[in-house]
TrEMBL record:
Domain named DUF6596: residues: 185-285
UniProt protein name: RNA polymerase sigma factor
Pfam families: DUF6596 (PF20239), Sigma70_r2 (PF04542), Sigma70_r4_2 (PF08281)
Gene3D superfamilies recorded: 1.10.1740.10, Winged helix-like DNA-binding domain superfamily/Winged helix DNA-binding domain (1.10.10.10)
Domain RNA polymerase sigma factor 70 region 4 type: 116-167
Residue ranges annotated for the RNA polymerase sigma-70 region domain, each copy included: 21-77
Source organism: Paenibacillus aestuarii
Length: 421
């Protein structure tokens, strides 16, 4: 295998293994930033050695053992936790050759869960939580995170550095939160994963309508969380939502990257394996017998679309009822706006328009481009095309996504052309 091919393989291995390695090291040294540094040391050694020796049979175990040795060296140097490093040292050094199978099968579920709760700690800003989570759990480089969110690389680097310093300064323990704090902390974790996925699913700015890399990373982290927190229905709900939404990627954009709305998508292009996985995750959550939370309700809405073989078969009355339930457990103007769309599809555009018009004075939606976009769509269906054109232009002026702006301006031109006839 050529050097460049080995480096690509190492990069792929690192993406898969880095989270559990960092989680294991963080448990040893009680410092997320230091744990990442020690893991990176092992990666550097692999980059130096593997092109000459070849990739080991169990590369994840090799990286885990090498990084643990680095951690033991560190603990010895600072003369802390002497009993701990001696115990771990005896375990690793009991044979001349490490037991690769034992190392790779080392149970790290709790450690990964601790790492997720640490990177998503509420003491950090939302931006810092996202950057640190993608860095440590997603294995993304600072450059990749910056590119995905269209912010300067130094900004992302500063967020990550500040996040690590903040965690160290306030002495956030590398442990699962107390039971009383678990719901609030889990909410923070799910919020970060959801935020990452949404930015990939409908990018808020830039020249691409979707950024699959972000969605894939959010889904991967969500799947990890679902396996190590199997009794939390909202975790399965979020995973189900992401699985089903991800199934539409090939149908969501046209040849030039232009958006294709849900009702206009070619459903033959939907990934039915992801749909089945999503539906299975919903069933897994329902079997827990607990009340539906916002993510499970949203997943149920997505499932209605996924089960409809054609757009005309969509159960809009059921979707309207689900949005009504969502507004009860997680009320917000955005939920109300989405509810208006469902009502318009179930009972007519004039019903939806009444709800949308009631939102026009909502301060939080003043710069939200979906409000005029939805209003324009409803006005167009009612034949009020000139008014619709003005709404689409207003939406185009508010969005920061280039492909979406072009799409909205094309819709606006329909009303303009009608006015000239």
């Amino acid at each position: 295998m050529k050097g460049s091919a080995i480096h690509r393989s190492i990069d792929g291995i690192w993406r898969i293994e880095s989270a559990r390695i960092i989680a294991s090291l963080a448990r040893m040294v009680h410092d997320v930033g230091l744990a990442e540094d020690l893991a990176q040391d092992a990666l550097v050694i692999a980059l130096e050695r593997w092109p000459e020796t070849g990739i080991p049979d169990n590369p994840g175990a090799w990286l885990m053992t090498t990084s643990k040795r680095r951690a033991i060296d560190y603990l010895r140097r600072i003369k802390l936790l002497s009993r701990k490093y001696e115990e771990i040292g005896r375990e690793i050094d009991r044979q001349h050759e490490p037991d690769w199978d034992d190392a790779i099968d080392d149970p790290v579920g709790d450690e990964l869960l601790r790492l997720i709760f640490t990177t998503c700690h509420p003491v950090l800003s939302a931006e810092a939580r996202v950057a640190l989570t993608l860095r440590l759990l997603g294995g993304l480089t600072t450059e990749e995170i910056a590119s995905a969110f269209l912010v300067p690389e130094p900004t992302v680097a500063q967020r990550i550095v500040r996040a690590k310093r903040t965690l160290a300064a306030v002495r956030v323990p590398f442990e699962l939160p107390p039971k009383a704090e678990l719901p609030a902390r889990l909410s923070s974790v799910l919020e970060v994963i959801y935020l990452v996925f949404n930015e990939g699913y409908a990018s808020s700015s830039g020249g691409s309508w979707i950024r699959p890399m972000l969605c894939n990373e959010a889904l991967r982290i969500g799947r990890i969380l679902a396996e190590i927190a199997p009794d939390e229905p909202e975790v399965h709900g979020l995973v189900a939502l992401m699985e089903i939404q991800s199934s539409r990627f090939r149908a969501r954009v046209g040849p030039s990257g232009e958006p294709i709305l849900l009702m206009d998508q070619n459903r033959a292009l939907w990934d039915h394996l992801l749909i089945r996985r999503g539906l299975a995750a919903i069933e897994r959550a329902e079997r827990l017998g607990k009340a539906f939370g916002p993510y499970l309700i949203q997943a149920s809405i997505a499932a209605c679309h996924a089960r409809a073989r054609t757009a005309s078969e969509t159960e809009w009355v059921r979707i309207s009822a689900l949005y009504d339930a969502l507004s009860q457990v997680a009320p917000s103007p955005v939920v109300t706006l989405n509810h208006a769309v469902a009502l318009s599809m179930a009972f007519g555009p004039e019903v939806g328009l009444d709800v949308v018009d009631a939102l026009l004075q909502e301060a939080s939606l003043r710069n939200y481009h979906f409000l005029p976009s939805v209003r324009g769509d409803l006005l167009m269906k009612l034949g009020r095309k000139q008014e619709a054109s003005l709404e689409f232009k207003r939406a185009a002026a508010l969005t920061r996504n280039e492909k979406e702006r072009e799409f909205l301006l094309r819709r606006a031109s329909i009303g303009d052309n009608t006015a000239k006839l």
